[in-house]
Amino acid sequence: MELSQLSLNNFRNYDQVSLKFSSGINVFLGENAQGKTNLLESIYALALARSHRTKTDKDLIRWGQQEAQIAGRITNRFGQTPLSLAWSNKGKQAKVNHLDQSRLSTYIGQLNVILFAPEDLNLVKGAPTVRRRFIDIEFGQMNKVYLQKSSQYKKILKDRNAYLKSWAVSGPKDQIFLDVLTDQLIELATQIILSRKNFLAKLATQAQIIHREVANQKEELTLHYQAPVPVTDGMTATELSESLAALFKKIADREKRQGTTLAGPHRDDFTIDVNDTDVAVFGSQGQQRTAALALKLGEIELMHQETGEYPVLLLDDVLSELDASRQTHLLLAIQDKVQTFITAPSLTEIARQLIHEPKVFLVNAGHVKEEEEL
User: Fold this and answer.
1) Which of 3, 63, 138, 345 has the smallest set of CB atoms within 10 Å of its CB?
2) Is 293 exposed, middle or buried (0-12, 13-18, 19+ CB in 10 A)?
3) Can you tell me whether residue 80 is helix, strand or coil?
4) Which part of the chain is the RecF/RecN/SMC N-terminal domain (predicted)?
5) Is pLDDT of 374 > 60?
């Protein structure tokens, strides 16, 4: 899979820009605050209908304008497909092949991307919300059913929390209605938990191979999913559902007092171990970065395995954060395999040696030109 063309209209600091890309490695060079990351953000948003930098859509619209648009053309084994995404005071509009998509779940997955930025090192040592978001975004691109179930779960969770909050504030409500919400939550939670566990098992298989190579065969990486109840290999949906039901019965009074749902996928986590030790707690910074790199590169292979297509890789100023060995492993892993977009003030010496014929764009104050044009 690759993104062959990209057009921006009033997106961030860009008035209008239209670019054509190489199927290999594309590099955006420029000083800080010129718009390099905005270009990567636009590709990410085109794929996932959301920014990775802000939750407020109006932040994406150029100052003083009323609407913004991103348009792109993707090429995969089935042919070419135009995509577009627009933001205005009327909301968000997504199109595939020029046809409106009433649900974003039908839009997401047309273009699969993996973003690796310096803050992704927090995947290892950050809060559980970082790792949950990682699963939801990456697995959601590969599996539309998971994306739909996750969306449904969030809606039921919101309704249940509102009802529990009302219970806590103003006293007992209808227990039967709460039971209905709980049953709906458990059904969706069961499917999500089993899907996440399966996803992490597959990701671990891919990441372990890469991690061994980066660590010179001296370390073994493992992932451990942490759910509200023990989830063993081979556990059936019925067994998990019964365990969750027992847990919710046990914590029912506490939930009513606190006015919120105290268990479920929205509170789950996973740990990243190296040689059976939690690398977030006891690992060195080098080990943490190796683990993060292995997970990101493992995603590339897993996405290819699950969808039949390699994703587009976005590297936002990440090369300068990696030492020579990790830069080398990263660049060799993607060379001639994955269409890649790199932002950097300048290319490192290792990158210049390893990248074959990159297409270089120079970015300055919201203007982009191919290097050969200057």
Assistant:
1) 63
2) buried
3) strand
4) 3-344
5) no
CA–CA separation, 191 vs 153, rounded Å? Answer: 10
Binding-site entries:
30-37
- Mean pLDDT throughout 186-203? 97
Torsion of CA 185, 188, 193, 194, to 10 degrees: 140
Q: How far apart are CA 143 and CA 324, in angstroms?
A: 35
Strands (E), the chain: 2-11, 14-20, 25-29, 68-76, 79-88, 91-96, 99-100, 113-116, 221-226, 269-274, 277-278, 312-316, 340-344, 359-364, 367-370
pLDDT one-digit tens code per residue, 280-297: 999 988 899 899 989 989
Give residue 191's pLDDT band: very low, low, confident or very high (50, 70, 90).
Answer: very high
The predicted-structure confidence for 32-85, as pLDDT tens digits, reads as follows: 989 999 999 999 999 999 999 998 899 999 999 999 999 999 998 889 999 999
Distance, in Å, from the CA atom of 107 to the CA atom of 120, rounded to the nearest integer, reads 25
Residue partners of 2: CB distance under 8 A and separation at least 6: 21, 23, 74, 75, 76, 312, 339
Average pLDDT over residues 166-176: 94
Q: Is 173 helix (H, G, I), strand (E, B) or coil?
A: coil
Binding-site annotation, residues for ATP: 30-37
The arrangement of strands across the sheet holding 221-226 comes to: 221-226, 269-274, 277-278
For residue 364, pLDDT over 90 is answered with: yes
* DSSP of 112-123: -EEEE-GGGGHH
CA-derived radius of gyration, the chain: 22
Q: Which residues lie across from 368 on neighbouring strands?
A: 363
Q: What are the respective helix, strand and coil percentages of the chain, to the nearest 5?
A: 50, 25, 25
Residue 253 is predicted with a pLDDT of: 97
Contact call for residues 20 and 68 (beta carbons, < 8 A): no
Tell me what the mean pLDDT of segment 173-177 comes to.
96
Domains of the chain and any CATH numbers = 1-112+309-374 (3.40.50.300), 123-307 (1.20.1050.90)
pLDDT at 235: 95
